[in-house]
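Problem statement: downstream parser choked on a complex file, so we are re-checking the raw output for the fe (ii) ion run. The parser issue turned out to be on our end (a line-ending mismatch), but while we're here, posting the original submission so the record is complete.
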Amino acid sequence: MPTDAIVMLKQDHKEIEKAFKAFEKAGENAQKAKGDAVKKIIELLTVHTYIENEVMYPRVRELLPDVEDDVLESYEEHHVADLIVMELVTMKPKDERFDAKTTVLIENVRHHIEEEEQEWFPKVREGLGRKALQELGADLEKAKKKAPKKPSQPSALKKTIDAVIA
Ligand SMILES: [Fe+2]
Ligand SMILES: [Fe+2]
């Protein structure tokens, strides 16, 4: 059964939300649990951002000009999250700002996911139809296999730097 692109991305969102909850449930002093949760959050976000930036967003932009503004805003939201992640990877759970920075990352990404799911993924579903979404899903699966898992990997970091100096 081929995977529908939107179904697949929403599944990713669920996993990301699970990692957010793990961070939020960890006690104030649970350094290890918080550190592990943030590691997982960063890994999931790095892969997910990569496949959306490389496959989903450019394809939607090309096929559905009406959704272009939503896509551009989403790129910017990814960029803000990337910047927070780049700072977070240099920090330890005991650092004074670790919790605050993670909380702001979570708030930003939750807002972003809500916009994707509520505002523009429905337009994409309507505009593309089932077959195109399945083809897109297959391409997302492929991209996932070669996606970086850490922001320090060249393919991930390069995007952030390009976005800053572009
Ligand atoms: Fe996104
Ligand atoms: Fe997403």
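For whoever reads this later: The chain has a mean pLDDT of 93.
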